[in-house]
Amino acid sequence: MASAFFANWRQNIIYIGFLVIFVVFAATLADKGFLNPNNLLNIVRQTAMIAVMAIAMTFVLSAGEIDLSVGAVAGLSTVTVAMAIAVGGPVVGVIAGLATGLAVGMFNGWLTTRVGIPSFLTTLAMMGIAKGVAMWISATAAVPILSPGYSWLFGGGNVGPVPVLLLWMVILGAIGHIVLRRTGFGRRVLATGGGETAARYSGIDTKAIKFKVLVISSSAAALAGMLYAGRLQSGRFQLGEGDELSVIAAAVLGGTSLFGGRGTVIGTIVGALMIGLINNGLILMGLEFSQQLIARGAIIILAVALSQKRT
């Protein structure tokens, strides 16, 4: 088993890289508390929202599309949830958050599959629209959430020593893995991204597949926003800003192809954790923010380059 693992080392580079980085940080930053259980759990807490969005992004990329609006949709969701909770309570807030994601996803999907605008442009425009709406309805101010029950369930609670955010990540990761690998929908997603024309001739409604993955992506972004809001007990348009880059990087690091046809949810989750691990380790090293950006970018480029198959 080990020999087969290392024989396909390019395919498994994300797992090897994660282990190497963890060992290096554990050896060099032990005196700075890297291995402290609280620090390791904080990495999970800081990574969970990225992982939730990256799981859905795996489906989008596997279908040959892309969603650049996830960070802005997460921010908009935090605001709609907080405002709805203030008016009608936590149940209304949850409905409002999910409705936000569904509405944005359906609009993105309609523009992409029916109007024919490439998803890159559709979601790039939606990034600005979602952020603008969030700023407008909140008047750029934070909206507090005064519901302990909501805050506990959506990001702020613990089951014993285990953060609720970890449970969200594990449950959604398991569902995503099963759907992508064990269901007809997952196979149709991969077939659509692997060759849209061939998939269409084999009877797959490729437009419907692309519509659905964009709805899934925006819904997951809205859920990530709900987790942000619960953890920080407020809705703010800035939450999720720039997350789209980390989300896409996590999926690609995990082995999902930017060109479609190949994806792995487990690899995506490890990719998200790897980004969180790198961020945490570089901060503990005391590097300036500019140096952190350089080091993080170099590590991600190296990992992706090593994972590419040579032709």
Automatic annotation (TrEMBL):
Any one GO cellular component localisation term in the record? plasma membrane
Which superkingdom, per the lineage? Bacteria
Q: Where is the signal peptide?
A: none
Keyword Cell membrane applies: yes
How is the protein disposed in the membrane?
Answer: Multi-pass membrane protein
What's an example of a GO molecular-function annotation for this chain?
A: transmembrane transporter activity
Residues crossing the lipid bilayer are: 12-30, 42-61, 68-86, 92-111, 123-147, 159-180, 209-229, 265-287
Annotated keywords:
Cell membrane, Membrane, Transmembrane, Transmembrane helix
Query: One Pfam match, by short name?
Result: BPD_transp_2
The compartments listed are: Cell membrane
Task: Decide whether keyword Cell membrane is in the record.
Answer: yes
- What's the name of the protein? Ribose transport system permease protein
Q: Which organism does this record belong to?
A: Kaistia soli DSM 19436
